[in-house]
Amino acid sequence: MNIELRDAPFEPLAELERHQASQDALRGRYGATAIFVGTMRDFNDGEPVRGMTLEHYPGMTERHLRRIVETAIQEWSLLDALVIHRVGALRPSDPIVLVAAWSAHRAAAFAACRFIMEELKAKAPFWKREDAAAGTRWVERNTPG
Amino acid sequence: MSIQVKYFASLRDRLGRAEDRLAATEGMTVAAVWTALWPETPLPPNTLAAVNMEYASPGQLVRDGDEVAFFPPVTGG
Question: Nearest CA of chain B to the CA of A28: how many Å?
């Protein structure tokens, strides 16, 4: 299990490959990998968005992400899980979050990946501030899944 | 007893500061911590609270040394 906050852009697929290659215990055991990548759009609420800043509550963020991932590993008997989430300044097309779940069969990987993502959105203390034409504005709520 | 208070995101911007320290009294709740610091500002609707980095209800009691945080709905992912 690995949980990371990054303050610079990252490549989700390269991270996935690197993590998988570094986990000897995974080799030969997993039959399913489900991944989710969240990416910054260049529009929101019908307006162009030029950039975004992601703020978080250091300490509380890591604690809740760890608990969410531990719950998923237990609930679905995952072989492994990985979460990487950006903080700081982002540009459109930058990846925001990567969630990956490894399991023996696909049902567990799909369900756990979805669970981790939805729980992260509901509980992890991150806040988005958008840089739009009219100035900066805080995003007030998540869009429905 | 002393409580550390933190504010985040739009709430911090609105209040104009990120932290407070409060000489709290025995039996004080999370809601009472807010009222003691901001007697003229009702807690904005939808504001969430945490005590020692765990989500907390307004009625939860605080203890000496606790870190209380107030923040708007979270929008990560």
Answer: 31
